[in-house]
């Protein structure tokens, strides 16, 4: 194995182990970890066997196999961006609803204070 394969394999295994550690420490939720774990396993497979990369690239219609790695990288980043956008949208809506509820509760508390002062 050449130095590039060893470095790539070490980095991929390191990322895999780091994600597993983050999940075990409850710092990363399982639904987010799945994408990272699948990507690291995919990179490990491609690193171990160049033949898998060549066959996968030709099956898709890519004639320069390393271009498949760039395609996978771009798709990975796209999935991460979409996932963050969905989460951000959900949190924004939740934040809006909570702000409205707090405003209503604050108004009720003020009304009760006024009633108690009058009566």
TrEMBL record:
- Residue ranges annotated as transmembrane are 6-23, 32-49, 55-82
Q: Which Pfam families match?
A: DUF2304
Question: InterPro entries recorded for this chain?
Answer: DUF2304
Q: Does the keyword Membrane apply?
A: yes
Q: Does the keyword Membrane apply?
A: yes
Q: Which domain of life is it from?
A: Bacteria
What does the UniProt keyword field contain? Coiled coil, Membrane, Transmembrane, Transmembrane helix
**Coiled-coil portions:** 88-115
Please state what the protein is called: DUF2304 domain-containing protein
Q: Which organism is it from?
A: Geomonas paludis
Its organism's taxonomic lineage begins at:
Bacteria, Pseudomonadati, Thermodesulfobacteriota, Desulfuromonadia, Geobacterales
